[in-house]
Design goal:
25% strand; 7 helices; 26% helix; six-stranded mixed beta sheet; elongated; 310 residues
Amino acid sequence: MPTHITEWLGNAYLDYNAITLGLDALAERVRSENFNAIVIVLRGGTFAGMHMSFLTGLPVYFIAYHRADSSVEWIGSAPNAQAKVLLCEDSAGKGTTLLNCRNFLRNAGYAVSTLVVCKVPGALVNPEYICIDWKNDDLQVLFPWNRYRINGESRTDDLPDHEYEHTAWDLDGVFLDDLKHDERDNDDLAGMLARRDEMPLGSYAPMVSPGDVIITSRPEIDRERTEKWLRKFRIDIPVVLREEGDVAENPEFRANWKGKKALELGYTHFVESSSEQALYLAARYPELRVTWYNQGNRILVNASKINKLG
């Protein structure tokens, strides 16, 4: 199961719009410095470096950094000797990637300035160009290209990025039909739950993968009957249920609880059967890749909450 190595305190997710806006704002300054080339640190610096290349017309070159031995190498050709270059990376932090790459270029005789999408507290390098100077050290900064870092196991860097991506699934409406409002009888709760227990596996039920999980707003007191139903259809993944009182009946509260639980456990994707809850999930937790599961028809969801005026 995915995990967070330390207690999850939250993420600061920087989306493509915010990043692009920051780069656009720096473009005039970069053009005025008469650089000869952009050097991109693969892979984190790719988006920033390529975008800045379009904004400035500068040619791009690539270097790779190897954490195991702190070595740096050119991927392809190198700029002309003694060129003035702009080194691009996604972040300036407590790690040594940016520092060692800058030293590699300086030792080779280049005049080097650095550009990053985000600088975090305690950074070893103070870049000349910063899109976002992040001050809160309690939150993990995420970019669109490294959402997989939600899964704490990714810190080892042993696997391809996509293999750290795992899905949290809603239950009712995904694996079985959700009870319709007119089928819910609060005066006969036992009978209603018994009918749900006898429901068949939905024809649209998905195939799950090892490492996936079910996160449902069913209460913990329903665990035995829920796990019995899952075993009947050989759905062999863990299920997380809510404690009594954790979630109100309001769909927004349910969605917020599900998203928070998914991120606490290190899941990168959430599949939700309710379109309303899917919208709340996407708006509250943009770092999650949210899918509305409409009886097997999957629709990726992106949303933003509008603040009330006045």
